[in-house]
Write a structure and sequence with these properties.
alpha/beta; Metallo-beta-lactamase, Chain A; 2 domains; seven-stranded mixed beta sheet; 9 helices; binds zinc ion
Length: 262
């Protein structure tokens, strides 16, 4: 089968959009970039919007749904997510319009098939109206993505442990968060059980739970105020020292390099 390819177009609180596919087609996870940027980014990897078979939304926060209306109305891309997340999108005051066309309702734990990709949504703890991660199988490879989550429970751990390729949040460095000028309310929200994962939580989880099945880790959704790519990398590389895992820190506003999996 045609090799699996992954690229992050944008990752962080300004916008999230990830491509998973092969040389001919693929899917997007989240729609946190504008339609023109999407077109440009797809062209850079030799594809167009016609090669996108579906857009899978993780939750209704604006950095994940910024482009969802034009993706649906201008490019006619099928949008997949849970009914509650669709409701959340249509109640988000920053989304200028309502999404009715091309909606595909999915349920957590019930896989959907898009060509050669099997995609299953699973629950994640975060503060959107509803929040999911995705476990995607292709040609025997297990790709798991969870972009915003406050802590890790057994439901998510089960999928993370099965991953060959894991895209997981590493939002903040605890010390940087404590020392920055955010309000106490915001700090508590970020560090809370339904906020975001810090570098230590992500790195410790992987170090303690993942085995040789895991070959690639992509750290996503880094904070611009409370983290740096260097600090996140240092934290995880120390904890995964001795394991043969390829680590990539995803850039916040620019694409990463396209990765092709052997
Ligand atoms: Zn987010
Ligand atoms: Zn969020």
């Amino acid at each position: 089968m045609d090799k699996l390819r992954f690229i992050s177009f944008s990752s962080g609180s300004d916008g999230n959009c990830y491509f998973l596919g092969n040389t001919n087609y693929g899917i997007l996870i989240d729609a946190g970039i504008g339609p023109r940027v999407l077109k440009k980014r797809l062209k850079e990897i030799g594809l167009s919007t016609e090669n996108i078979m579906g857009v899978f939304i993780t939750h209704d926060h604006y950095d994940h749904i910024k482009g969802v209306l034009p993706f649906s109305e201008v490019y006619h891309l099928p949008i997949f997510t849970t009914e509650t997340i669709f409701d959340g999108i249509n109640h988000n005051y920053r989304v200028k319009g309502k999404l009715f066309e091309g909606r595909n309702f999915i349920e957590k734990g019930v896989p959907v098939q898009v060509r050669d990709f099997t995609i299953e949504a699973f629950e994640v703890p975060h503060d959107g109206h509803d929040n999911v991660g995705y476990h995607i199988s292709y040609d025997g490879k297990q790709f798991v993505i969870a972009t915003d989550l406050g802590h890790i429970e057994e439901t998510q751990a089960k999928h993370f442990k099965e991953a060959n390729i894991l895209v997981i949040e590493s939002n903040y460095d605890l010390q940087m968060l404590e020392n920055n000028d955010y309000s106490d309310f915001l700090k508590e929200r970020i560090a809370g059980k339904y906020g975001h994962l810090c570098n230590d939580e992500t790195a410790n989880f992987i170090a303690e739970n993942c085995d040789e099945r895991l070959t690639h880790v992509f750290l996503c959704h880094l904070s611009s105020h409370s983290n740096t790519p260097e600090i996140a990398y240092q934290c995880i590389s120390q904890k995964l020292c001795g394991k043969n895992i390829n680590i990539t820190i995803l850039p916040r506003t620019s694409p990463c390099e396209l990765v092709e999996f052997e």
